[in-house]
Amino acid sequence: MSTELKNDLFIRAALAEQTERPPIWMMRQAGRFMPEYWEIKNKYSFLEMCKTPEIAADVTMLPVDLLDTDAAILFSDILVTPEAMGGDLSFEQGVGPRFSNPVRTWEDAKRLDVDVLPKLKYVADAIQVIQQRLNGRIPLIGFAGAPFTILSYLVEGSSTKDFKNTKLLLNNDPELAHYILQKIADLTVDYLNMQIAVGVDAVQLFDSWASALSWNDYKEFSHAYNQQIISKLNRSVPVISFCKGASVFAPLLIETNPNVISIDWNADIRTVKNSLPEGMAIQGNLDPFVLYADKKVIKAKILNIIESMRGEKGFIFNLGHGIMPDIPFDNVKYAFEVVKEFRY
Ligand code: 1CP
Asked: What reactions does this protein catalyze (predicted)?
């Protein structure tokens, strides 16, 4: 963790302290909506970018410099852990991530490697380079994918709309699902604790596809593992638990005892905040599609969220999910300005 931060607004909010305005960063801020990202992306493959610490640091710093964010997020991907486990991963332009060797049988699952930290040394190296570049300017967030979300990519072999193969596995061979989920959970604990040891200032667990599950399946196949992971983390830095579907699953998300829960846009943020135990902070929850709209609308919808949190301790402004690649950069910049000019 950085010894002294020049801007510690994000950390103070994550620790449920009152701040003069909400800190702001955006999920997927280090990405494709920035023309400067494409200048780098056109020269390298996505995995090359993740695996070359200097390039990962360059991309991490793009939104920090261009948008003056209150937190940086490590440029990497949740899929680097399943890749290190043995997944043959590629990212195809316009198609997204693809594993050529999906994991669907016991035989496939037994081959998954869990002793993967040496293979992920490039992440530790990137964190060190980024922290040198940040030089205490703002905190750096590390992250990992939650086991269920990672499982869905390993089983489907790609992005999916209906999670058909994943659900077939959960329903037909829950024992196998649990076997794989436990492997992912174990290495996620090691991976996040490694990021913390190397120097990130906070970590976020991304359970992007939890919303595909019923309440009971979420409890059994997702929540149980997230709870296990968070209980085993080195709590010297704040832990953020993000879940798409948090509007429904918030009571369970709270049970995992993170410092911050990060919610999507379905719920009224004030209502969810009021259901949190003392000392737990909240992050969210603008619908990212608002950022396609006119500036007047962007401003009104941002202010609506911020105003509704007046008097609350521990609020980090963010989107309810990642920013889309074709959102105009100028609109994103404007959203940052609106939040940064606000004072409670
Ligand atoms: O083609 C390209 O340029 C690559 C696009 C890209 C980028 C910029 C991918 C491929 N990943 C990333 C970076 C990334 N991914 C970050 C960097 C830091 C930041 O937030 O700015 C982070 C935190 C992620 C996390 C991630 N990857 C998630 C969880 C967050 C979320 O949005 O739900 C998920 C689900 C992924 C998988 C993934 N990686 C990339 C793609 C295209 C996808 C598929 C998404 C899908 O299945 O719809």
From this structure: uroporphyrinogen III + 4 H(+) = coproporphyrinogen III + 4 CO2
Separation in Å, CA 234 to CA 3, 11, 278, 307: 17, 16, 21, 34
- Residues 237 and 309: their CA atoms lie apart, in Å, by 24
Which is the closest atom of ligand 1 to the Cα of 208?
Answer: 33
ipTM rounded to 2 decimals = 0.93
Query: Could you give the domains of the chain?
Result: 9-341 (3.20.20.210)
Work out the number of other CB atoms within 10 angstroms of the CB of residue 159. 12
For 113-162, write each residue's pLDDT tens digit: 999 999 999 999 999 999 999 999 999 999 999 999 999 999 999 999 99
User: Is 77 annotated to bind ligand?
Assistant: yes
The vertex-256 CA angle with 250 and 253, nearest 5°, equals 10
Q: Is the CB of 75 under 6 A from ligand 1?
A: yes
What 8-state DSSP symbol labels residue 233?
S
Which residues, including other chains, have CB under 8 Å from residue 277's CB and lie 6 or more apart? 254
**Weakly modelled stretches of the chain, pLDDT under 50:** none
